[in-house]
Amino acid sequence: MRSELDLELVSLTKRYGDTVAVDAITHLFHAGTYACLLGPSGCGKSSTLRMIAGHESVTDGAILLGGRDISRLQPALRGTAMMFQSYALFPHLTVAENVAFGPRMRGVDAKTRARRAAEMLDLVEMTALSDRLPAQLSGGQQQRVALARALITEPQILLLDEPLSALDPFLRVRMRAELRKLQRKLQITFIHVTHGQDEALALADEIVVMNDAKIEQAGPTRDVFEAPATAFVARFLGSHNVIALPQGQIAIRADELRLRPAEGARLQGRITAVEYQGTHVALTASVAGNQDVTALLTDKDFFGAPKDVGEAVGLDWDARAARALEA
Ligand code: ADP
Ligand code: MG
């Protein structure tokens, strides 16, 4: 399939009455990228995705695919396909019939659509279950059928709205690896909405962090994680401390903090919690200004010199590890 076309959002805006759900966002998704739209509930992720798909009207701005304005085209003509959170399979149709449903509606002949459906089911490794009804499938299997049904339209862009949220944690981790594998194989653009930072980090070439209807920060996944621009991004990604110092506000990864004797350390405080996490130990201390700061220590470092709640402690870091945050 392989997409050749970049997708560009230009001052894209969605208002529902007085609610501004998406506020003039501008972003370029390069062809063939796995992108995650990441942000808390209500920040405008689904509205953005639905506007791209054409399931929601655009209030203002434009959506360009390969330079062509698709903002007002009907969904089937856009070169996009959406996989819904609920999968929305037809309960009375078999797996193969569900996948062939779109082509059937478009008047594709029976033989061609059966062949195409078989190809898609092969792609998602569901050939053996082609004749089952949706009720006879597990959550993960239903999701593969929904994927096959979206991909049969040969989209340039596959849009996925919280595709893993209905699965149990174990299956979620397995399915995300399969989504990534599928995207690599097809080389089309995936835009995957999630509120889970671990999911976004695991999957995405590029992360777009949204907050309150705006894009807070976007970029290659590691760049965003290594250098969060704002306190919101640092907190939302997790694994970072946001610390107010007299000079300003900084973010420091929990694993970049070192324990020191209190005297002479940059931060001094008292341990309020010690949490064993297997390979690591998370040690939280209350420091100047009543701030909680968490240091993630390897189990070897921690148990080499164990500490307990209530003990005084100093925390330090390499100057390179501190990221100045925008106010
Ligand atoms: P997210 O997917 O990030 O949780 P949404 O795009 O669903 O966010 O919603 C963004 C904002 O728009 C929220 O305040 C939500 O209540 C509002 N909203 C979403 N859909 C509608 C709608 N159909 N009518 C009115 N308000 C809506
Ligand atoms: Mg949503």
UniProtKB/TrEMBL annotation:
**Per the UniProt entry, what are the Gene Ontology biological process annotations, in alphabetical order?**
quaternary ammonium group transport
Q: Name one GO cellular component term.
A: ATP-binding cassette (ABC) transporter complex
Q: Which GO terms describe its molecular function?
A: ATP binding; ATP hydrolysis activity; transmembrane transporter activity
Q: Which domain of life is it from?
A: Bacteria
Residue stretches making up the ABC transporter domain: 7-237
Keyword annotations for this protein, in alphabetical order, are:
ATP-binding, Nucleotide-binding, Transport
* Matching InterPro entries: AAA+_ATPase (IPR003593), ABC_SmlMolc_Importer (IPR050093), ABC_transporter-like_ATP-bd (IPR003439), ABC_transporter-like_CS (IPR017871), Mo/tungstate-bd_C_term_dom (IPR008995), P-loop_NTPase (IPR027417), Transp-assoc_OB_typ2 (IPR013611)
Short name of one Pfam family = ABC_tran
**Protein name in the entry:** ABC transporter ATP-binding protein
